[in-house]
Amino acid sequence: MVLLLTAALLFVPYAFSAEPASPPVKEAPGIGLPGVRIVGLPDWLGHSAARSLSVVWREMSSDGIGDARLEILRVVSERLFPGFLVTVDEEQNLPVASFSPQIVTNWDVECVVPPLSDALRPWFLRDIDGMSATIASLLSGFPVAALSWADAALRDEIRRLLAPVLPGWTITILARITTPLPEKETGERNERCLLQVAFSPEQPLVLAVVPRVYSSSLPVVLRSDLNEALLKGMSPVIGIPVLWAKKHASDIERMAEFRLSDRNTVVNSMAKVHADFVPEQISRIDADVESRRYILRAWAATYLGTDDRYPEFGLHVGRKALPWSGWDVELYAEWIVRANDLHLESRYGAEWSLFPAFSIGGEVSYPGGVFWWKARTRQDIGHPYLWWRMNTDNEHNIGLGVRINEHISIELHYDERDADSMSLRLIGNL
After folding, report:
1. Pick the CATH number of 294-429 from 1.10.1660, 2.40.160, 1.10.10, 3.40.30
2. Cβ of 277: how many Cβ atoms within 10 Å?
């Protein structure tokens, strides 16, 4: 008897800590392994209890069931599983251990929200909505004294329930008796307890957020304010789990868009903001800020490999219009000044965006009043782009390049009008 108790007590911690996540919670009519059935425990707890008692049962003499063996199993059960009264009966030549709580415990559950910013706290509350009641249902009929041996199984079950709604967070539990039993108990024995579930973030965490503001309609000089505003607006995201940030990527994108929407640059240019968040330890937030009315660009360029071209400065001013539904048309003017002789070239034209990344149009260049057909692709950072012009004399002007970052682009430049038609063009976007 002593040896059996000792062996069982040594085995129980392993059984309850090593048991994998259990099936959905329900009161089991009978749970068991070969040798022992368990009645009166929920699935998340009953399988572990059956495992422990099956080991004890196998270690006892196998000469039939017998009342003595059943009594020994009952005594061992009550020693192993405090908080429950255990009766052991025989059914179909198998021992059946029936569990009933010694004291009825009424449970309240409180989910303790971790310290989060005011912007992120509503997301967490939304995730755990209704979870207190779900956890409380796990504890129906569960005596507080049983936490001495079942706390690991309870934590595992709560983690299983929370994993889909709170990825990246781990829990700790704390039980407090709020209404203790009276000193002289009469009638039904019951008490009231509070189970507090606290949350802490799991690695990996978001360590930094790198913002990038892109716009084809606003000059770089106006975007610096937006970049700083976005960097400051993303500070609440620092320190949260990457997995949780991934779940709330759309919320983070909406937060970024809101942070930029009230900036003067966005308001005055009637710009539309679209953000894209990439959750990683060093996360990235990309924001496209495109004016729905105005386009303003400025640049400085120099040419390498030709004697026919000199450094130049350019300014582009445009106004978007919608003459027909679905027609995104820009009316614009450009002025280009060459550094060698301050020669001014003026261009006036219209451009139609067939697709978001491709547009066609035409323009008139002065002096001379020469008409040019033109087409171009969008200049996204890190991607190649192409632009093409052809005048009424069938002379071609082509640029094939890549925008390295917000400020620098490099092009292979071709102009049929020049003696050195091929050159390398370096562009600084202002």
Report:
1. 2.40.160
2. 24
